[in-house]
Design goal:
The protein is an alpha/beta fold. The protein is built from 12 helices and 9 strands. Strands 7-6-5-8-9 form a 5-stranded parallel β-sheet. The protein has a 4-stranded parallel β-sheet with strand order 2-1-3-4, with helices on both faces. Strand 1, helix 2 and strand 2 form a beta-alpha-beta unit. The longest helix is centred in the first third of the chain and has 24 residues. Bound molecules: phosphoric acid mono(formamide)ester and norvaline.
Amino acid sequence: MSGVAPLDLAPVVRNFLDLSDAGADALAAIQNDAVTRKAARRDASGAWPKGRPDADAPLAGHVLAMIFEKNSTRTRVSFDIGMRQLGGSALILDSSSSQLGRGETIADTARVLSRMVDAIMIRTDDHAKAEELAHYAHVPVINGLTDRSHPCQIVADIQTILECGKPLPGLELAWFGDGNNVLHSLIEAAGLFRFNVRVATPPGYEPDPGFVAQARERGAEITLTHDATAAAAGADVLVTDTWVSMGQEHAHNKLAAMQPYRVDAALMAQAKQDAIFLHCLPAHVGDEVSAEVFESAQSKVFDEAENRIHAQKSILLWCLGKL
Ligand code: CP
Ligand code: NVA
């Protein structure tokens, strides 16, 4: 008998390139784990050193490689500290100092890293690069943001929404501004968790119709409008993001088109009284959000940023078969 395992017995690698890779049940398990781990770190003294491993250290001996072809603060720090809290460690390859920056292929990089680390996170421009990395890697690949999507961000956002006492069924979430990568993952989450999204963008800046169609097929109501006030009316959650994403040209006409979509006090006043404001950060206060809203009690942006760490840990655990 040959020693080669039949294909159907080959281990399944759990990539996290988009939320649908996990699906609704796994995402719910990820959410539950993130909430549990967050609480467990706090309930003893409330003052655990941020790098100290969780009591069960489930990723002891595991290493994550992070490839950054774009800047990052939250994603970089939350994956690094998250790995430490899980008992493992992380290292960074940036394009300027690794051989990727000198033209080594993604395919070769994937196969080399797979021999050295247990999982790979990539932040890059073209989503196809993350897909190619996952194709050639033998270990899980996590999308830390591409031009198409930002799934890790949305796991943290959902956690923040739930923490604010807002159940997902029937939730009315409103998005303002650019139809970008973060919005795409939010729309994908709406289909998987069955909440509704009103998207207010200027003409020409709508989200990818593929994400919209998929979420609608899954039963979410996705409303596309150019009317910010209508989108905000009665909403539970108001969300925005930078008007100019990393790698985009600073087109003057884009900034002009975005002006009516700033989340300001007048727009918040259209929403439910207990509505919350979210932003993945970094923010350009005065552009997509007014200082008044950004600094208000309704703004949960720093809880959202903190939740990146809790969400990331549970995503890693799912990818590595621990959830
Ligand atoms: N929200 C987010 O992904 O932040 P960074 O770009 O700082 O990682
Ligand atoms: N849409 C933004 C998100 C940054 C976290 C960008 O792609 O630059």
